[in-house]
């Protein structure tokens, strides 16, 4: 599993784990994010069962496993959080922040030792070490209870499935040519994002944030001007129309 | 470090469920015995002094039916416990396998904090062994309950023999009816023993494989 440090300032770090070369063919490639600060770490969308072992090994390159105090699931999908039952047997005193709406469902993955911390619809802030992360509502994008994660100091937005692209295996971690990148994300957004209204609410909300990097759960990172390019493109895209 | 055990030999959760399903038939036989006992009681009442020797036999049949049904209920509960613990074991051993895979990957790639994985793999193995013990203990209890049913049915078979002797001595007007009750008791006992013994053999074999 490849690890890419996308932000570092002192002990405040953002790392993306992904592009696993041993991943089975029919499993969609995912980006797992880890944010560290003050000897604590949070895993954002820690991924599926299949990825658990390589993830654990990859994380051990950066922090002792016991430093992982928190997990976050943007929504209930298996590629997001089906590894929960395994983390549950590994982590002591950890919490999972996830939409309140999905608690009864996500618990089916196994959640005995880990505390389920339900995120209210309006979102919330949490502290990881010396830093604050904000769970930004992204409901219906694509799940009915869904959040993005914003770090106001690193100016990174982890956007979950928004901005996702289904890329070839060797694709770079950062979008290099936005126009060329559209082909990898257009059909995904038209099919998976069900509501133009929800999309507009999220775009308006994100426009108010200072975002230097937008990092989705699949595909590549949008940096600098490409963040706004994405927001403009997404705003103009008619979604929820891929099948009639 | 905890002793490594071979994972995933017997699927006890599937085994226990199939034992419980199989024993639905035993419960039916218990109910059949109960019905025959009622039948015999009516006969005894009608025959009066002519069938005095048969009265303790009907009493035994009532008791036997009740014990069989109670045992089957206990077996159902125990089978559910085996199944429950076995599924828990499936999860713990799966987690151990995954964690060991991570341990190897971290070692091969020289992960700085790989020692932090070693610590919890050891404790996960302990949990896994404990979960496995739970499966084995409940399977052992299940086996004891099945053996109890076999013993009960042996007694039933002995009683049906004396019932046959007794029926032969009864007044000819009732003899055939009592004969038929005795035969049915023997039949039920045979069917149950056969069913239970098959299941016992499967469970005992699974248990010995898992213990080895
Ligand atoms: Fe999703
Ligand atoms: Fe996804």
CATH structural class of chain A: Alpha Beta
- Stretches with pLDDT under 50, minimum 5 residues of chain B: 1-7
Q: Distance between the terminal alpha carbons of chain A, to the nearest Å?
A: 38 Å
Q: Structural class given helices, strands, pairing of chain B?
A: mainly alpha
Number of helices of chain A: 7
Q: What fold name goes in the CATH topology slot of chain A?
A: Metallo-beta-lactamase, Chain A
Output the number of helix runs of chain B. Answer: 5
Helix content of chain A: 25-40%
At the fourth level of CATH, the homologous superfamily of chain A is Ribonuclease Z/Hydroxyacylglutathione hydrolase-like
Profile the largest sheet of chain A.
7 strands, mixed
Largest β sheet strand count, sense and barrel closure of chain B: none
Work out the strand percent of chain A: 25-35%
Strand order of the largest sheet of chain A: 1-2-3-4-5-6-7
- The appropriate CATH architecture of chain A is 4-Layer Sandwich
> What is the overall pLDDT average of chain B?
88
Overall description:
The complex is a heterodimer of chains A (244) and B (212). Chain A is 25% helix and 28% strand. Chain A has 244 residues and is α/β, with parallel strands linked by helices. In chain A, α6 packs antiparallel against α7. Chain B has a domain at 12-86 and 138-210. At the A-B interface, α1 and α3 of A face α3 and α4 of B. One fe (ii) ion binds next to loops of chain A.
Key structural traits:
heterodimer; A: 244 residues; alpha/beta; Metallo-beta-lactamase, Chain A; 7-stranded mixed beta sheet; 6-stranded mixed beta sheet; 7 helices; 13 strands; 25% helix; 28% strand; globular; B: 212 residues; mainly alpha; rod-shaped; disordered N terminus; binds fe (ii) ion
Give me a quick take on this structure.
Chain A is of the alpha/beta class and 244 residues long. Chain A is built from seven helices and 13 strands. The longest helix of chain A is centred in the last third of the chain and has 15 residues.
